[in-house]
Write a structure and sequence with these properties.
six-stranded parallel sheet; five-stranded antiparallel sheet; 7 helices; 249 residues; single chain; alpha/beta
Amino acid sequence: MIKLALCDDETEQREVIGGLLRDYAAARPAKTVKLSVFSSGQELLNAAAECGGFDLYVLDIVMPGLSGIDLGVRLRELYSDGMIIYLTVSPEYAVDSYAARAFYYLMKPVESAKLYRVLDQAATALEKQKAACVTVRTKSGLQLLRLDEILYAELSGRVVRYHLAEGTYLDSVTVRSPFQEEIAPLLADARFFLCGASFAVNFFYVAAVERGFLRMDGGVRVPLARGLAAQAKRLWSDYWLDSPGGKTI
């Protein structure tokens, strides 16, 4: 099931866009889309905190109180990895939408064909993102971790500690190979970056590249080896520019 959230402060727009989203869901029964509609950013934030977030967000940008951009940033701070699609009447916010790592940026009035194409692409990307996993050997046996739930990995003593987006962590058994070899399955995915001898981060959760650190969602700072800042900024930017997100229609 795909949990879809629509947020727009204008009643008419909620009815129009909501109608398009319901038609989309009805035409794709195999996807089982559940739509929730909100009239304010705070209302959506409260619901996301209670249910653990949504899979897809369709957000208006210009709203009183909490703007769509601020709302998207707050959702990321809650470790929500849902795909964000922005709707607006002005292209001036396209650059700002990168702060929330938007999947797409659509201009109003929205054509149904364009919206449905973007929703299909987002749903497909979401399925692939959730399907990618890594097997971790722990003291209690093998455990499967989805790559999209790993915030970063670090070598802690002689174990690899996987820090998860939900705020917990998972330790591997004692490792004897170099850290880079142990996390090779992570580094094979474009989302992950080896930022030092003992750390690898998921670019999806990187909020900023700072001097000597990568700041993650939630404020955690992961050490960045000297001389890697330029490469980290380039690859972090490439990750978002090369992904389906960040495009405007």
